[in-house]
Design a protein that fits this description.
single chain; 11 strands; about 260 residues
Length: about 260
């Protein structure tokens, strides 16, 4: 059941048209959709938490991914799949002709256009910033996921501390954002710099995408966790999706489910 269906059912209970027992029966047994291969889809997550279930592509076969997407689509909600490989993406596009796969971000969507093709808007209530062009895969995962969750999101790229002057022209947009997602590898310094320049909270995403990143992004994560600039929250390495979900829950609690 989707949020609007739940509201309608509760209204019927309130007016006495539907009994409590009848409503309880409607709710019962609808939380999970069992699929072959040990997969259980949580089709009630959208109404329960405001963010619907998203399909994680890592470790799934093409057949499993297709079944997951089909099951979520059947529940009447747009579908997002993350960390989708080109082979998996080809299988999904073959199964769902209305779907879209974006290789750079690893995202597949059905029922929603994420606007992942350049030019990206360079302002928004959420603004994703990357330290280098090598971080674009993670940044696009964050950008696309934020847009899937209904956020007004923009993206500015290659504004890291190695050429800090590149940041200056984007400062008005960064200062106008309600939240900034900063993706950086190497020394992981971009979130600290931004937190010292803008009023919005910064979600720091350590990146492993550059082959020169020490310890696969761990050093960047530790630098972010130890930042002396207040107002920074850190998610796991390469977790652009997690940063977008945090932004959605922080900025639009109770509203993201109405997208």
């Amino acid at each position: 059941m989707q949020p609007k269906e739940i509201e309608k059912l509760l209204a019927l209970v309130a007016e006495g048209t539907v009994s409590v027992e009848q409503a309880q029966a409607r709710f019962g047994g609808h939380c999970l959709t069992e699929l072959p291969g040990g997969i259980s889809l949580d089709t009630q997550r959208l109404g329960r938490t405001g963010l619907g279930e998203v399909v994680f592509g890592v470790g799934k076969s093409e057949a499993q991914l297709v079944e997951c997407v089909r099951g979520l689509a059947a529940s009447g909600q747009p579908v997002l799949a993350t960390r989708v490989t080109p082979v998996q993406g080809a299988a999904l596009c073959a199964a769902f002709v209305d779907g879209a796969y974006h290789q750079d971000s690893g995202l597949f969507t059905l029922g929603m256009d994420l606007g992942l093709v350049e030019p990206w808007p360079q302002s928004g209530e959420v603004l994703v910033a990357t330290a280098g062009s090598s971080d674009m895969g993670v940044a696009l995962e964050a950008y696309g996921s934020a847009r899937f969750f209904g956020l007004d999101c923009g993206l500015v790229a290659d504004v890291g501390v190695a050429g800090v002057h590149r940041l200056s022209r984007h400062l008005p947009a960064l200062r106008s954002a309600r939240m900034v997602i900063a993706v950086a590898g190497m020394d992981g310094a971009l979130p600290s710099l931004l937190a010292g320049l803008i009023p919005a909270p910064v979600v720091a995403v350590p990146s492993s995408q550059n082959g020169g990143n020490p310890l696969g992004g761990v050093s960047a994560m530790l630098a972010m966790l130890n930042s002396c600039s207040p107002g920074i929250a850190v998610v796991n390495i390469d977790n652009g999706f997690g940063a977008a979900a945090f932004a959605a829950k922080t900025l639009a609690p109770g509203k993201v489910q109405d997208r």
